[in-house]
Write a structure and sequence with these properties.
The chain has 103 residues and is mainly β. Helix content is 11%, strand content 36%. It has helices spanning 37-40, 82-88; strands at residues 9-13, 32-36, 49-54, 60-69, 78-81, 96-102. A 6-stranded mixed beta barrel has the order 1-5-2-4-3-6. It is globular. The protein starts with 8 loop residues before the first strand and ends with a strand.
């Protein structure tokens, strides 16, 4: 399936012991996410929970917003910790189509 840049998608990132934009350090196994800079804004989403569903396989995960994603492809895209991404896809996928809702 070819993804276009306006569709919601999920990628993953490593924590590397660095605090996210929300100011906390997390491990790769934590269920956290970084929202696209367009949505992240001034950080008002920090601590909010989002349920993300891989639209290819139906697997879902609920994550907490802990960072900003300046490299996300669009306002509907989310960057996940490896722990969260592993819940919905294999890391070899790299990027997967998703739907998501704020809880």
């Amino acid at each position: 399936m070819m993804l276009t840049y306006n569709l919601p998608s999920a990628t993953f990132f490593y924590q590397n012991g660095v605090a996210g934009a929300c100011g906390t350090v997390h491990s790769d196994s934590d269920l956290i996410a970084a929202m696209d800079s367009e949505r992240y804004g001034s950080g008002s989403l920090c601590g909010q929970q989002v349920t993300i569903t891989n639209t290819d396989n139906g697997k879902s995960v609920t994550v907490t917003i802990a960072d900003e994603c300046p490299t996300c492809t669009n306002g509907n895209s989310i960057d996940l910790s490896t722990g969260a991404f592993d819940q919905i896809a294999d890391e070899s996928s790299g990027i997967v189509p998703i739907s998501w809702v704020m809880n």
